Amino acid sequence: MPVKRIVLLPGEVHFSQAPDQLYTLLGSCLAITAWHPQRQLGGMCHFLLPDSKHNAALDGRYGSDAFNLLCQFMQRNTTSPGEYRYHIYGGSHILQAEARSLSIGGRNIDAAKRILLNASLTIDFEDTGGRHSRRVLLDLSTGKIIVHRLLHQAK
């Protein structure tokens, strides 16, 4: 079966199985990855903002909604969130003057940690913050994640 690389744009959530790969580019946005080692399936959500201010349908642009969508995919595949390994990536502070407490990136990091903690799930690895964008690739065959950091020039 050929490998399919699935590119996630901001606000998207995707779930698939081996041999697929999930790929995204992050700045201040944050990605939560989930991989099931026994079943070789998993997903990624790429959210832009920590919290939604609505009561409508779930919206992948917001952290809690994006994770809830990811959990729905898990349930459709007869698995539960506790069976997965979780990583978080992104949440960069792209602007030089940005204080972490005020930055979207910092708030996204805090939201991802809170979401997983509230669900009693462990973060196995994180690569967050800093002043660089990241390209993130999750290989669903192995669970290996490749991260390339892209440095920005200060202006």
From TrEMBL:
EC number(s) per entry = 3.5.1.44
What organism does the record attribute this protein to?
Iodobacter fluviatilis
Q: Where are the transmembrane segments?
A: none
Q: Which CDD domains does the UniProt entry name for this protein?
A: CheD (cd16352)
Provide the alphabetized UniProt keywords.
Chemotaxis, Hydrolase, Receptor
Question: This protein is called what?
Answer: Probable chemoreceptor glutamine deamidase CheD
Q: Name one GO molecular function term.
A: protein-glutamine glutaminase activity
**Which GO BP annotation is one of this protein's?**
chemotaxis
A Pfam family recorded for this sequence:
CheD
The record describes the protein's role as: Probably deamidates glutamine residues to glutamate on methyl-accepting chemotaxis receptors (MCPs), playing an important role in chemotaxis.
Q: What class of enzyme is it?
A: hydrolase
Catalytic activity of the protein: L-glutaminyl-[protein] + H2O = L-glutamyl-[protein] + NH4(+)
- InterPro entries per the record? CheD-like_sf, Chemorcpt_Glu_NH3ase_CheD, Cytotoxic_necrot_fac-like_cat
* UniProt family annotation: Belongs to the CheD family.
